[in-house]
Every structure is written in C-alpha cells, then in structure tokens.
C-alpha cells in the first residue's frame, strides 16, 4: 500500500513522524504538551496542539493511516494495585466500545476513573471505530506502541480489529534487535485492512539481542551485531554511563554500561546519568543531541521547550518506527540508505506545519 497521510495521536516530539517523513509519507501529529509541540514546529512537522479527545477522523479527512502511543503511566505497574485495576477497567471498556454501546454513557463512566490518563489508551480504538462507522472510510493501516505492560490492551485491540476486517499482529519488540543502540522493550501493534494485501506481521529483527557479558559477534550470524553507544556518539575516548534511575539511592544498584555496549533504556532522567572515563574521572554528561542519538533521532534535531529529557525518553525511536511502518504498509524492510538518512534532519520538512488557534478547532500554518 502507498499511504497518503498518517495522523499520529499523542505524537510527542515526532519520533514516528520523523521516520515517516524520511520514508516519503506525510504526517500530522496531535499533541497536547506545549514543549513537545515547540520541538515539532522547530522541526517543521505538521502539528495540532490539543487534546485528542476533542478530535476524530473527520477532522483529518486526508489521513488514511492511524498511529498512536497513548500515555502509559497507569499501566507501568500493571501486575499489581492501581495498574492492575486500570488494565482491567480498560479491557472492559474495549468490549463495550466494540459492542457499539452508547458513546455518551461510555464517556460518563470514563470520567469516573481514578486517573483520566487511563482512558486515553482507548482513544486510538475510538478513532478506528469512528472511521468505520461515521466516516465510512476505515483507516488502511494502524500502528500503536507503548510500554510492555500495555500488551494486553493491544491484544484486545487485535481481536476487535480482526472482527472489523483487519489483519493484525502485536507483540513485544526489543530495540537493540532493530539497530537502536539501546536496550528497551515496547509493545507494538500493527494492523492493515485485509483487502490491502498479504497478512500483516511485525518486522523481523535485523540485529542480535544484547546479553550482558556476551560478545557482539556471538549468536545468530545472519543478524548484525547490536549497536553500541560509541557507534552513534562522537566521543573520542571510551566511557561508562552510571545511572541512579530506579535504584532508590543505593550505590550498589546503580546501572553501569560501557560505551562498547548499548545504552540502558533512555528515560526522562537521562541527564542525571553520570558519564565517567575508564579510570573513574568525571566526563561531560550527555548533551541534548547525544540523548536524541541514543533514541536514533537526527543529530541536528531541534529540541525545544522544557523537559527535553522527558520528550526524548517518551519518544518512539525513529529507526524502530521506520521498521514498524514498513511492516505495516507491506513494504520491504528499510534499506541501509533509508536508515542512514535518520542521522541528519536537514531540509526534510513536512509540507503543512500547523497548530490550533484560540478557538481550538482552526488549523493555522507556521511557515
């Protein structure tokens, strides 16, 4: 299939959009965080600054592909307590939405949830069903990603979309197996209308999985070695990254990765990580550009606004997105030249940069 335009919900600073634009597919992102919108506009990406709940498929009539990565905070502890309850509630709402229960009644019940972010994970399904029921033009493809804890929601989505005429696949992908210099796991769903071609499948890994203490050249020789931090960062000497994230302040629990290894998961706390030489001397901590490169953003990507670390940590790695989009569209895996194009942003720009004016509905250009 050859998409016309992707509408990207919860678009963040533009990870998926960067990949799509490099693949020659136009995008428009819906994002409510002002700083992420500043980054997107600086990058020239078409942007609607607002709440995805206020919009729907009819507001983006040209878009024939739906993408999204809803907020995940209430699912990150899905194995217990509030996270488990939130997951169970969402799964019940999925069933109600697929059964086409009255939308106003569903919205009333959503408003009673402990955390309003819980209901946001349902928005891509609302958009998908409205495109079928109201627009009468289903999205040709759907791409969703989030933390592994959200996989049960994607599995419920998969069953619903299968009944609506889609071929669907979902599962957990490991970033380093797609050439991202970082160990990170994400729950991904891709769907394509069955009349668009062959059965859809998640992208096949291209690189070997990382294992602590296992050499890069060990394992499946058909796959490439995993990428290291040194492969993408322009630092002249070896270094170690020491992370205090998630340790509770216990020095013995601090994560430690060498520049000859992939980065640990990039989070919003990345700028707190110490960077030291092999003999323990303090070195400069990661710059914005370096943190972005660990997520495979272009080195010259124009990070803007506040909480840039959070923007970077929450983003979809563009290199992974390029693999996912290619699989969703039924294309061959991206070629090396396409993947290498992600190293710089340069003159690549969306053709219709936009945002909301004060009415909340009118799109205005920023060119």
Automatic annotation (TrEMBL):
User: Which superkingdom?
Assistant: Bacteria
Q: EC no.?
A: 2.1.1.37
Question: Which GO molecular function annotations are given, in alphabetical order?
Answer: DNA (cytosine-5-)-methyltransferase activity
Q: Which InterPro entries match?
A: C5-Methyltransferase, C5_MeTfrase, SAM-dependent_MTases_sf
Q: Which residues form a coiled coil?
A: 96-123
**Record keywords, A-Z:** Coiled coil, Methyltransferase, Restriction system, S-adenosyl-L-methionine, Transferase
Q: Which organism is it from?
A: Sphaerisporangium album
Q: Which Gene3D superfamilies match?
A: DNA Methylase, subunit A, domain 2, Vaccinia Virus protein VP39
Q: What is this protein called?
A: DNA (cytosine-5-)-methyltransferase
């Amino acid at each position: 299939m050859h998409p016309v335009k992707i509408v990207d919900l919860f678009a963040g600073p533009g990870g998926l959009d960067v990949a799509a634009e490099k693949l020659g597919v136009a995008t428009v992102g819906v994002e409510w965080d002002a700083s992420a919108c500043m980054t997107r506009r600086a990058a020239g990406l078409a942007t609607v600054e607002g709440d995805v709940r206020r919009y729907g498929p009819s507001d983006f009539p040209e878009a024939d592909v739906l993408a999204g990565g809803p907020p995940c905070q209430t699912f990150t502890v899905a194995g217990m307590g509030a996270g488990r309850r939130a997951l169970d509630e969402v799964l019940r709402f999925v069933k109600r939405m697929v059964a086409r229960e009255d939308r106003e009644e569903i919205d009333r019940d959503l408003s009673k949830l402990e955390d309003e972010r819980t209901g946001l994970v349902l928005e891509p399904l609302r958009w998908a069903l409205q495109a079928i029921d109201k627009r009468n033009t289903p999205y040709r493809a759907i791409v969703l990603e989030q933390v592994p804890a959200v996989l049960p929601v994607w599995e419920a989505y998969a069953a619903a979309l299968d009944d609506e005429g889609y071929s669907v696949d979902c599962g957990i992908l490991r970033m380093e197996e797609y050439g991202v210099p970082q160990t990170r796991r994400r729950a991904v769903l891709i769907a394509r209308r069955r009349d668009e071609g062959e059965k859809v499948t998640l992208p096949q890994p291209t690189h070997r999985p990382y294992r602590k203490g296992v050499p890069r050249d060990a394992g499946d020789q058909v796959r490439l070695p995993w990428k290291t931090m040194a492969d993408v960062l322009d630092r002249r000497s070896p270094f170690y990254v020491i992370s205090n994230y998630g340790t509770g302040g216990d020095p013995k629990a601090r994560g430690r990765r060498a520049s000859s290894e992939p980065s640990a998961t990039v989070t919003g706390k990345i700028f707190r990580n110490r960077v030291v030489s092999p003999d323990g001397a303090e070195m400069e901590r990661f710059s914005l550009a370096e943190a972005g490169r660990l997520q495979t953003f272009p080195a010259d990507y124009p990070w803007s606004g506040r909480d840039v670390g959070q923007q970077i940590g929450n983003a979809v790695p563009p290199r992974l997105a390029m693999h996912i989009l290619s699989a969703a569209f039924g294309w061959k895996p991206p070629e090396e030249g396409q993947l290498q194009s992600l190293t710089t942003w340069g003159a690549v720009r969306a053709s219709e940069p936009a945002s909301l004016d004060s009415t909340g509905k009118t799109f205005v250009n920023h060119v």
